[in-house]
Amino acid sequence: MTTGWAEARQAARDAAEPLETITVTLHEALGLALTEHLPALVPLPLCDTSAMDGYAVRGPGPWTIVGRRLAGPCSSAAALEPGQAFEIATGAPVPVGTEAVLPVELSIVDGAPGTHDAESPGRTVSGVLPAKNHIRRRGEDVPRGRRILQAGTVVTPAVLGLAASVGYDNLRVHRRPRVRVVVSGDELLTTGLPTLGQVRDAIGPLLPGLITAAGGELVDTQFAADRAGALSEALACDDVDVVAVCGSTSTGPADHLRPVLGAQKADILVDGVACRPGHPQLLATLPDGRHVVGLPGNPFAALAAGHTLLAPLLNGLAGRSPKAPLTGRLRGRIAARDRETRLVPAVRTDDALVPVGRDRAGSLWGAAMADVLAVVPPQWTGPEVEVLPL
Ligand SMILES: Nc1nc2c(c(=O)[nH]1)N[C@H]1C(S)=C(S)[C@@H](COP(=O)(O)OP(=O)(O)OC[C@H]3O[C@@H](n4cnc5c(N)ncnc54)[C@H](O)[C@@H]3O)O[C@H]1N2
Ligand code: MOO
């Protein structure tokens, strides 16, 4: 029985148990999801540091310059007495007793505007201290031990930078779900110009990016002839978590996916989705726990199904926390359907989403021009819609 679009996505998510934990280097963690909350191993900053290039000072000026501290390891012994200053670089630990940092552009050294000068110790600096003391206190940005990121967070470039700055070399993450793509259809051609009766495979090329973005790892793409036996063979593998079958989802004489899944005693969790395009898509679980997603052969329908069932399934297996939906306002005359959700390619303008058209199930032209798929639910009257970034 056909499932509603939102329910189908939730069913795909619910079918996915997050995969095992692995420990990887920061570099290897990009795109994977944290398995545990991350506490800061050190405070940020580590100690009281200067926020400006200038002079760390104590008491009222003028101040005698007694030392110099640039970035890099340094002794903790340096201290200021009232009336003393240290030339200091942004980010360097301030000497004990520092009350403020006088920025270099506000400073006068021996009567001349201050500059960075290796000869400054022994000279006198003066200037009017600004209201801000320009000292970053220990732990002011991130206190030591504070939970900085939650389990389920996807590791982004910013997460890597933050994890490194609070002391991590490795992260514990869920492994990526391994995916095999099986493209079915005797008419398909993978290179060159098609002749009568042939069609260039458009789904094989679009899936790797979608799979990676959803947290999966494409193991390989295989081609299966339009025979039940070929599809059965392609499904008989134990080296992947998910098999995405393209084509063969309908009820025609060459469409064998449902009968083959029946013969393999698969549990069909979603048997068609009330959406356009993409309504024949399906989600099943094989007796050994592997998941099968059936993507319709019409290329735009396959893309829509990739976002409807495949991406939420991979997100869940990868251990990614669900995200609140993105929304936007759709402009123009869009005819909602009575019972089915429409997935409409649209571009973002300054103030709205504008459908681009060219969105028949067999054509990827609209989707290729679009920024998002706008989700138009049954009997929608607008203008707010959920959007799926492409
Ligand atoms: N009697 C009915 N026929 C169809 C229905 C229906 O409800 N009743 N639904 C239509 C819809 S909607 C879709 S979508 C397709 C789904 O068909 P299949 O998943 O079985 O796919 P095929 O029949 O193999 O192919 C359909 C179409 O797409 C082209 N195709 C297939 N694979 C690729 C590929 N990798 N790259 C590019 N194009 C591909 C294929 O040549 C066909 O033109 O069923 C409708 N029929
Ligand atoms: O699912 Mo079909 O794609 O509506 O064309």
TrEMBL record:
Pathway: Cofactor biosynthesis; molybdopterin biosynthesis. It catalyses: adenylyl-molybdopterin + molybdate = Mo-molybdopterin + AMP + H(+). Keywords: Magnesium, Metal-binding, Molybdenum, Molybdenum cofactor biosynthesis, Transferase. One of its GO terms (molecular function) is metal ion binding. SMART domains: MoCF_biosynth (SM00852). InterPro entries: MoaB/Mog-like_dom_sf (IPR036425), MoaB/Mog_dom (IPR001453), MoeA-like (IPR038987), MoeA_C_domain_IV_sf (IPR036688), MoeA_linker/N (IPR005110), MoeA_linker/N_sf (IPR036135). Its EC number is 2.10.1.1. One of its GO terms (biological process) is Mo-molybdopterin cofactor biosynthetic process. PANTHER family: GEPHYRIN, MOLYBDOPTERIN BIOSYNTHESIS PROTEIN. Catalyzes the insertion of molybdate into adenylated molybdopterin with the concomitant release of AMP. This is Molybdopterin molybdenumtransferase. The lineage of its organism: Bacteria, Bacillati, Actinomycetota, Actinomycetes, Pseudonocardiales.
